[in-house]
Specification:
The structure holds two protein chains of two kinds. By secondary structure, chain A is an alpha/beta fold. In chain A, 39% of the residues lie in helices and 20% in strands. In chain A, α2 links the parallel β4 and β5. In chain A, α3 crosses α6, α9 runs parallel beside α10 and α16 crosses α19. The longest helix of chain A has 25 residues. Chain B is an alpha/beta fold. Chain B is 33% helix and 18% strand. In chain B, the strands form two sheets. Chain B has an eight-stranded mixed β-sheet with strand order 2-1-3-4-8-7-10-9, sandwiched between helices. Chain B is globular. Chain B starts with 25 loop residues before the first helix and ends with a helix. Classes of the chains: A alpha/beta, B alpha/beta. At the A-B interface, β7, α7, α9, α10 and β15 of A face β1, β2, α2, α9 and α10 of B.
Chain lengths: 589, 284
């Protein structure tokens, strides 16, 4: 059994398009197969070739909740990678670099291993491009990661390209291994085999989400390529036809959501995924989905905005848009995914909510979650039972009213092909039958009440889904949303270990809000921090509208997710403040 | 239930909703032609979906006994594509106006044409924006005077037929609402056509752009010997803007989008229907 306290952060940096990402991905899969929990983070340039790319993987013998703080091992393919990341390497950390490419300055408190990656690849393999495989061989042997997992992986990865390519890569790997054996070890890092024995999957947030959509019964996907959501479409283009479904790459995002609404109207579960700019284009159709009461799932893998923003960088900046976009009184459900594992179940719940309440559901993910990989248990298909929309009974179809006012405000929904179920899905305000009623004042009120009338039931589910962790009666509270869940949880654990009383609430449905859960939580702590990866504190602002409470905001707006320490530092600062104030009050008494 | 389905007559497709169009509007002729074609083909209302955008033409689904989708301005084709993909056995008819289709919705037409889904797209072309009171449209002639062009339209009108032929639509035809019987004939052929069938209908706006007096002099049947598979000849007919040519300009057979999708599904399922668990195993 390996030491369970193993917890190392590896970062690979170099020129974009030169195999940095694939090196990181192979390292990730190998570490996962070797029995470690993994948690990755990547940034890459907006250019196809050139520009700087880096990929980070944290591997540990315990469940990981964030991408970590300091870097233990930096693999730098060039000077730029070194310059950009050297300050993140912890004291005593390791820097492996391509000695053919540059020479780092003498002292930084790190341990240096210069490996002539380029010349080894060129001379011993005959292919310069295999330098990243040489590097993997070096890392594997040097840090005692079982070689077999890498060689298996290389065979799988290059098998389709033929035996020659496989052999060249195996040779490159061995060249790296040999080099490691000739290098004198000066550090303590050693991984060996991890403690996990059960089978787990290595999934990115986007992949997990796409799998969840399939599990929920999604059979039509329409979308337009946009970073960082595109791989959802590519994944489904490959997998959906296997289950009889289909993916259309539409001419734009308006067409994508239009196709989704058309397919939903005709009886299929359908979804689209995009990022901020595409979601902006979809706004008008979102309103149509609301008034025509069509189930639909719209994923927004958020990136930095406004406008084209920073396409490859992360932000939680689209919450206002998700909640308020669209003209008129336009109720929709907004959810946020919290982790790679939650992306699977979260999408299943999104489809269920869409079907159950016949309303578009906007699901917020973000670049950091969509593109990071993590080890997750094989999904349990029974955890979230699949819900189908309410269909009309034979009696309903005798004199069918598509938008019939019902006690729970949900009406049986027919589909083309059903005898007696004909109706017009209307963008105009309409009566119970779907008949346009653009001038009927009272009907508009009643119809609006019908559409909002579903919300109290959604709120009950929202309360059930909001998670709390940490101290149940905390002195310091944290409210988070979306992909910050893990990092907040890790910060809470750090703070608890230092003796602070901290607890957190993390809702999954953000609109309508889980009011009962929020109310109960807010009444306890002496101070509440709301960390968000955006500039203005969008969730804090939404909550301030419902609760007269002076939330403390912690905002990060540089296109990167939080590190646990950043949140921990804020907790510590606030906790000391609270204690000082309590003492001041006590002194006065 | 047993026994033969009672025969559907044109009036069988009429709903209780009375068209809100101005008396004498060309769109009545289009609607009658559609009723006639549907009855001729005995299309079952339960299997029929009429999709529209916004404008006078947008109200059409409400007047046809079937399933309908009154969507957004210019968004007829994406919605219709979704319907057809979800259930390829449906008869899908998209209807729109010249503003709806060629201005705001113009970006969708080339893609619908090249995808070739098996559906009909009928444009009720009155060369004006009727519902917003007569502003110029993408097919208004130069010099057209209205609220937004008080000194006359300075823009060149689009040529819908030439455009659709260029985009690769597999069925391109033109009709006139003043000749509903001939129009019904064209619509019938459009419904029968396997693929994306575009029918441009000259449908005058009685209130803002009453062209009923000038159109009849310009009418011309497409030549008897016109070879509809000849794309260059079809262009030639379309470019004859001195006349309003009526009939089928172009018709060829191409695989439809649904057929393509079915082939992809077949390819993907070549090794048998997979279970989700098998997809999971790709990621372990």
């Amino acid at each position: 059994m390996a030491d369970p306290v193993i917890d190392y952060v590896f970062r690979v940096g170099g020129e974009g398009g030169e195999g940095v990402i694939s090196t990181g991905e192979m390292l990730t899969t190998a570490l996962a197969r070797a029995g470690f929990e993994i948690y990755t983070f990547r940034t890459y340039p907006a250019e196809i070739k050139g520009g700087h790319a880096n990929f980070q993987v944290r591997a540990a013998g315990k469940l990981l909740l964030s991408y970590g703080d300091a870097v233990d091992v930096l693999l730098a393919f060039n000077q730029e990678a070194y310059d950009k990341h050297v300050q993140d390497v912890r004291p005593g950390g390791v820097i492996v670099y391509d000695a053919d490419s540059f020479t780092p300055p003498a002292s930084t408190g790190a341990v240096f291993y210069g490996v002539p990656l380029t010349s080894l690849a060129t001379e011993k393999v005959g292919i310069k491009l295999t330098k990243n495989i040489v590097a993997l061989g070096f890392l594997a042997d040097f840090f005692a990661i079982p070689s077999e997992v890498f060689t298996e992986l290389l065979k799988e990865k290059f098998g389709r390209k033929g035996e020659m390519v496989v052999q060249k890569n195996l040779t490159a790997f061995q060249v790296g291994v040999d080099c490691a054996r000739q290098t004198k070890k000066q550090d303590q890092i050693k991984l060996g085999v991890g403690p996990r024995k059960t089978k787990e999957l290595v999934l990115s947030g986007n992949e997990s989400l796409a799998l969840g959509a399939i599990a929920a019964g999604c059979r039509i996907y329409a979308g337009y390529p946009i970073t960082p959501a595109t791989d959802i479409m590519e994944f489904l283009a490959r997998e959906l036809p296997k289950l009889g479904g289909f993916v259309v790459q539409t001419e734009d995002e308006i067409s994508a959501i239009g196709t989704v609404l058309g397919a939903s109207f005709a009886g299929k579960k359908a979804m689209t995924a995009t990022s901020g700019p595409g979601f902006s284009l979809m706004t008008e159709m979102l309103g149509l989905g609301v008034t025509a009461e069509l189930p639909a799932v719209i994923i927004d893998v958020q990136r930095v905005g406004p406008s084209t923003g920073m396409p490859t960088k992360t932000e939680q900046g689209d919450l206002y848009h998700a909640v308020y976009s669209g003209h008129g009184a336009c109720p929709r459900i907004v959810m946020a995914l919290t982790s790679v594992e939650d992306s699977f179940y979260g999408i299943m719940r999104a489809f269920n909510l869409a079907e159950q309440f016949q309303v578009p559901v906007v699901v917020l993910s973000d670049a950091s979650l969509g593109h990071r990989k993590a080890t997750v248990p094989v999904p349990d298909m029974t955890r979230v039972p699949v819900i189908e929309r309410r269909r009309p009974s034979a009696a309903d179809l005798i004199s069918y009213k598509r938008y019939r006012f019902t006690p729970d405000h949900v009406s049986p929904m027919s589909a083309p092909g059903m005898e007696g179920g004909g109706y017009v899905a209307e963008g105009l305000e309409h009566t119970e039958t779907g008949y346009p009623a653009a001038s009927d004042h009272q009907n508009h009120l009643r119809s609006t009440q019908k559409r909002y009338g579903k919300f109290p039931q959604v709120e009950v589910i929202a309360n059930d889904l909001a998670r709390t962790y940490g101290d149940p009666k905390p002195e310091i509270g944290i409210i988070g949303w979306g992909s910050t869940e893990g990092v907040i949880r890790e910060a809470v654990e750090m703070a608890q270990a230092k003796g602070y009383s901290v607890g957190a609430l993390h809702p999954k449905i953000l609109y309508p809000q889980p009011l009962a859960k929020l109310k109960a939580f807010i009444s306890g702590p002496k101070a509440i921090i709301i960390p968000e990866v955006n500039y203005t504190g969008q969730f804090a602002t939404l909550l301030r509208k419902r609760f007269a409470y002076d939330f403390i905001q912690l905002n990060k707006c540089i296109g990167l997710p939080f590190t646990p320490k950043e949140i921990f530092d804020k907790i510590e600062e606030v906790a000391q403040h609270v204690r000082a104030n309590t003492r001041a009050v006590a002194a006065k008494l | 239930m047993s026994g033969p389905t009672p025969e559907l007559l044109p009036q069988s497709y009429k709903t209780d909703e009375h068209p809100i169009w101005c008396p004498g509007c060309g769109d009545f002729g289009v609607l009658d032609a559609v009723y006639k074609s549907l009855a001729g083909l005995q299309v079952q209302p339960k299997d029929l979906v009429v999709v529209s955008g916004i404008g006078c033409s947008g109200r059409t689904p409400g007047f046809v006994k079937s399933y309908g989708f009154h969507s957004l301005h210019g968004r007829v084709l994406p919605v219709a594509l979704g319907v057809k993909l979800a259930n390829p056995s449906l008869c899908v008819i998209g209807v729109g106006g010249d503003g709806d289709g060629f201005a705001i919705g113009g970006g969708h037409i080339p893609h619908a044409a090249r995808r070739n889904p098996d559906m009909v797209y009928v444009i009720m072309d009155n060369s004006t924006y009727g519902l917003t009171k007569g502003q110029y449209s993408p097919t208004s002639p130069r010099g057209y005077q209205a609220g937004s062009t008080p000194y006359g339209n300075i823009e060149q009108p689009l040529n819908p037929l030439a455009m659709l032929i260029a985009y690769g639509a597999t069925f391109v035809a033109q009709g006139y609402s003043g000749k509903p019987r001939e129009l019904a004939d064209v619509v019938t052929k459009a419904i029968e056509h396997k693929g994306f069938a575009f029918v441009n209908v000259i449908s005058p706006c009685i209130t803002f752009n009453n062209t009923y007096k000038v159109i009849p002099q310009k009418l011309k049947e497409t030549p008897q010997d016109h070879d509809v598979t000849n794309r260059a000849k079809a262009f030639e007919l379309a470019l004859d803007t001195a006349h309003v040519q009526l009939g089928i300009f172009y018709q060829v057979s191409q695989p439809t989008f649904e057929e393509g999708a079915a082939e992809v599904i077949q390819k993907a399922q070549a090794s048998g229907p997979p279970r989700l668990e098998e997809i999971f195993s790709e990621f372990s």
